[in-house]
Structures are given as structure tokens and as C-alpha cells.
Amino acid sequence: MTVKITIGAINKEHGSSKKYKTGGWRSVCPVVDLEKCISCYKCYDYCPDAAIKKIEDGIEYDLDYCKGCGICAAECPVKAIVMVKEEK
Amino acid sequence: MGEQKSMTIKGNMATAMGAKLCRPNVVPAYPITPSTLFPEKMSEFIADGELDASMINVESEHSAMSACIGASATGARVVTASASQGVALMHEMLFIASGMRLPIVMAVGNRALSAPINIWCDHQDTIASRDSGCLQFYAENNQEGLDLMINAFRIGEDERVLLPVIVGIDAFVLTHTIEGVKVPAQEDVDDFLPPYKPKHGTLDHRDPATFGSFAPPEYYQEFKFEQTKAMEDSRDVIDEIFADYANRFGRDYKKVSTYACEDADVILLTMGSMTGTAREAVKKMREEGKKVGLAKLTVYRPFPMPELKDILSSAKGVAVIERNISPGSTGAVYAELAGTFVNEKKRPLLKNFITGLGGRDTLVDTFEEIYDKTIEVIENGEVKVLVEWIAMNEEVMR
């Protein structure tokens, strides 16, 4: 996504921060084992980037915005989430 | 053209009169010695119905510049004043003002920075803000203070520039000294300075936008390039607008103005109020047959490299006399002047003199001593001591 710069960095497009996919900052990626997941959604509550979506019987990651901080894995009470090194 | 009224006023009053003639809409300010009279006067103009503007009393200089930024983003014409610690406290906001391309004008009563605490004349406060992206003008007298304020709005608001402008007047020597000043008529200033109507967008709740928005590594450098280009482009704009001002009001400003430089072996380079005394010293030395001239730096940002090259290259030695010091290096002007000449084949020897710090008087004797020391450099053909402190009070030295 490329936009042209403006005088004074004025941006008239609303909600355009969505276009900046911060997932590119990630070096480790969360992987959830839905067999172990108890759908407590603690990870959903703790995710600082709103990169976790609730689905029926578990969760799903929006990797466009997950920075790989690992808070979800640390908070998961049943250790259903592991952080895996990402090769790019 | 209307008549220019003669008034005998203090420097702060001169910058305030200059500002008032530009019809600012918003005046956010926090008083600090020696600039306090500026917000006082602006407040009086508003209370007396002479100026239709909003005065914002803030709790700090950081807030003053923040309020300037918010107000200027709406498209208002904004003016403030500060000095010393106040300029230091608003330091980060100055970068934001310039990055957001807001032509705020600020009068600074140039004063020393603590510690030790000192309220007197010194250029360290605005020199410490030299990289903030604001244009910087320095006045020699109160007339220049008034005129440069009016020019500052027109230059800063020019579509080719859109940057904040600082106008420095020396603490006490100008801020609190009463001098004769010619004040242009309101209708002539109105004619010189059109209303500020930014085309690139204004802060407006009916048309919401983000200002100074996030710029990741793919974008930031391009923003800074454009901002720097605006500062570069201001060089021609300054010449153009100074010339227009001269035509209309009869006072001709130059980025660097000269006195007796044509055949001079030694040129003294000064900034601000010390120039008046330096001119007297040069006059006296010329009568004694000494080939000495004087160059005054009115515009410090953008740094007038081409003009300084033209004026100084024919001299044998240049004495750069400064009311600031970058500890561990030289005075700010010296380093930049050395940079200006570094690739030139024909260049004068450059020697840096630090004096006048914290309100130390710069006397005719001081400039004569500086001349003698510069002649010594020329005779030796080399600058053994790059930075020399002049007019030291030996009695108090440990």
C-alpha cells in the first residue's frame, strides 16, 4: 500500500491506519492448538493489537496486525498457544 | 501610502506593534523575562479593542507552542513570544510546528540559558533551536524587530515556505530599551500581508483529518526532504519579500548586510544588537586607516551561504563574533561558516570570538581587540587558536 506524502502530513482518509499492516514487524508467530483451547478468550482480552478474532470453539489470528508479542501465549491457561520462529 | 508614525518604544513593544499590524487571530503565550511585555501588550491591544484576537493564557511554554500549533492548524494567524528557558521548554513543539508546516511567528527576547541563572542577552536559546526547522531572524535594533515581525508572517505564510519563523531581539539591550521606531500604517501592512489562507488543508470538525500523521520508515525521510526543501526555497522568497518591503516602507533588509566591506582585509561578522557597537568601532578604525569592514547576519536560518561567500571571500581574515558557544566545538555560526568555505579555493582565514555571553557588554574596545587579534592571524598565516574568549573578567577567574 503506497500513499503520496502531503504538506504537514495531513491525512484526510478516515480509519486509514488499518492500511498499515504492522504484522510485518513480527519475528515469532503464534500458533494455536484448537484441540487444547477451552475458549476462555483470555488471549482475546489481552491482545494489545486486537489481532485475535473469536470463532466458535476457539480463536483465529489476524496475522496482518499480530506483532508477535506473545502475550496470548503467556496468558493462555492451558498452554494451547505456542510462539514459533518465523522465517521470511 | 499612509504615513509612518514615529514612536519611541521598547523592543518588546516594537515586536508587539509589528505583530498587531499583522492582525493575528490567536495569541497563546506564557510570560518570561525579558519577553513579558509582549504578551502584556498583546493582551492590552485586545482588551482595548485595537486587536480582534483570542489571547490564550497557558500554564507553560510547552503548552504555549502546543496551543500555537492547534490554532495555526485551523488556519488562524498565530503569534507568540518567549525567551531562554521558555524556548528550551517548547523545544520539542518547535519541531512539530515546522513538521506540520505551520507558519507561527515567535518573537524571542534572546536570553542566556541556566545554569547559572541569568536573564541577560545571549543567543544560546534560539541557537539551541537552530535545527528545529524554524526560520530565524535576528534584529539589530527595535526598528528591525518591528519590520522583521511583519516580514516573518509574509515569508512564513508563503505557499513556497509554510514554516514557523523566530524573530530574535536581544534581551534588555533591545527588549527593554526605548528607541525611535517608524510604525507603518495599518492599511499599508494590510496591503503588504494578505490574509492567511492555507490551501493544503485546515483543522476543521466539518472536514476531519489527521495532522502530522504517522510516517513509518518508508515515508519519514521524504517528509523531511520536503520540509528541508521548503527551507531552501525560502531563500528566494526572503529576498523577494524583503525587496517588496523595501519598496513599500523604505527599509531595505538583506540576509547579510555590510558596512565598509569592499576593500576590507578584516571583516567582523556579527548578529543582533552588538552590530551597532561594532559599526562604531569599524568607523573609528577606518578613520585610523585600518582596512576593516562589518557584515551583519540578519537571517541565520536558512544559513545564507551564497551571500556570505560573496561578501567574505575577498577578505584576508574574518572574525566571527558570537553570543553562543557549543561546548566541545565552536560558536554555531563559526562552524557553519567554515562549512560554507571548506570547498572554496579563495577563502579568508576564519577566527571565532566568543563574547557578550549572559549580557556581557560588547564595547568598541572589544571589537578593536578582536580586530588586532585577527590581524595577527593574517600576519601569521594560520589560526592557532580557533575559538578565543574575549572580554573575560580576569578578576573573577579562579
What is the gist of this entry?
With 88 residues, chain A is of the alpha+beta class. Chain A has helices at 42-46, 71-75; strands at residues 28-32, 52-55, 58-61, 81-85.
- Give the neighbour order of strands across the main sheet of chain A: 1-4
Report the end-to-end length of chain B measured between terminal Cα atoms: 60 Å
- Please count the helical segments of chain B: 13
Q: What value does the Rg of chain A take, in angstroms?
A: 16 Å
**Mean pLDDT score of chain B:** 97
Helix content of chain A: 10-25%
Order of helices and strands of chain A: EHEEHE
Helix/strand class of chain B:
alpha/beta
Give the rounded overall mean pLDDT of chain A: 94
In total, how many beta strands of chain B? 15
- Radius of gyration of chain B, Cα only, in angstroms? 21 Å
What is the β-strand count of chain A?
Answer: 4
The computed structural class of chain A is alpha+beta
Sheet of most strands of chain B: 6 strands, mixed
Description:
The complex is a heterodimer of chains A (88) and B (398). By secondary structure, chain A is an alpha+beta fold. Chain A has helices at residues 42-46, 71-75; strands spanning 28-32, 52-55, 58-61, 81-85. Chain A has a single domain (22-85), classed as Alpha-Beta Plaits (2-Layer Sandwich), CATH 3.30.70.20. A two-stranded antiparallel ribbon of chain A has the order 1-4. In chain A, strands 2-3 form a two-stranded antiparallel sheet. Chain A is elongated. The two termini of chain A are 19 Å apart. In chain B, strand 14, helix 13 and strand 15 (387-389) form a beta-alpha-beta unit. The longest helix of chain B has 30 residues, at 220-249. The chains are: A alpha+beta (88), B alpha/beta (398). The A-B interface holds A 5-12, 14, 16-17, 20 and B 73, 99-102, 162, 200-201, 207-216, 219, 222-223, 226.
